[in-house]
Amino acid sequence: MYQSLATKISNMKHRIGLTTIFIITFFFISFAQNKKAIICLTYDDGLQTQLTNVIPQLDSLGLKATFFLPSIQGSSQSDVIGQTPEAVVGWTNAAKSGHELANHTLFHACPEKLGWQKSFSVETYTVEKIIAEIKIDNSILAMLDPGRKERSFAYPCGNFLIGDTDYSSIIKKQQLVTYARASGDSTSIITNFRNMDPMKVPSWHVWTGTTLNELIAFAEKVRKAGGMGVYTFHGIGGQVFHVSSETHRAFLAYLKAHQDDYWVATFSEAMDYVTKQK
C-alpha cells in the first residue's frame, strides 16, 4: 500500500510539473502569437535633440521609450529669473507622457582611452564615488518624475568595472536600481530570458549614420528569434552618434505599422515582463 501511495504521489508531482511547464510555455506562445518580439527604444545622455526631435516623434505615434539621463544639460540656464529651465520642463513633461526617465550616473565617467580627461575618467573613481553619483542622480530623477519609485540604469560607456570591482551587484543589493542596460552590437538579441542577467542586459549601440534598413533589419532579426531587442540611441538629427531625424521618424513609423508583431515597451516595462516569466 505504501509503495502504491508513493507511486501515486510521484505521478502526481510529475503531472503537476508537466502542467506548470505547459502553463509557462502556453503563456510565452500566447504572447508570441500576439506580439512576436519586444523592442525597447532607449536614448542616452539627455541630449537636446531628444527633447526637440525624439519625444515629439514618439508622442505623435503613441510610442514610449526610456531616457537614461546623467546631470540634466541646461538645467541651470534660463533667460528669465524665476523661470523653470527648458530642459527641466521638457523632461518633466516626458515623464508625465509615460516615458521612462532612468539613471546614467551624474557625470558619466568613461575610460580615459575613449577621450575622457584623466581627472574625470573612470580610472580615478572609487566604488563609493560611483554609488554616490547614482544616488544623486536618483534624487534628481525623483524631482523630475516623482511618480516612479524604482529606476533602471545604464552603465556609462557600457563599463561596469571600477578598477577590478564589478559594481553591478552592489547597486542591485543596495536597491538603487532594478535593472541595468549594458553594451552590445547588432547581434545582441535576447532569447534566453531564464539565464539573462537583469543587471547586464545587452543592447545595440546605434552608431552615426545608421540607415533605416539597418534599424529595421535588427528589429526583424528580433522578431524572427521571438526575443527582445534593445536599441541604444544618442543624438537624433544632430549631436553625438547621430542618426538623421528622417531615418528615426521612418523607423518609428515602421514599428507602429507592424504593431501586431512588435511590443514597443520601456526598458523597465519589458524587464518586468520577462523577469516575471522566469
How are the SSEs ordered, and which strands pair?
Layout: H1 2-34, E1 37-44, H2 48-61, E2 66-69, H3 86-96, E3 100-103, H4 127-144, E4 153-154, E5 161-162, E6 165-166, H5 168-173, E7 180-181, E8 189-190, E9 204-205, H6 212-225, E10 228-233, H7 245-257, E11 262-265, H8 267-277
Helix pairs in contact: 2-7
Under CATH, the topology of the largest domain is which?
TIM Barrel
| Rg | 21 Å
Any idea what the shape is?
Answer: globular
Model regions low in confidence, pLDDT < 50 over at least 5 residues: 1-30
The CATH homologous superfamily of the largest domain is termed Glycoside hydrolase/deacetylase
Number of spatially distinct domains: 2
Give the fraction of residues assigned to helices: 40-55%
Under CATH at level 1, the class of the largest domain stands as Alpha Beta
* Mean pLDDT score: 88
**Mind telling me which CATH architecture of the largest domain this is?**
Alpha-Beta Barrel
**What about the largest sheet?**
7 strands, mixed
Question: Helical element count?
Answer: 8
- Number of extended strands: 11
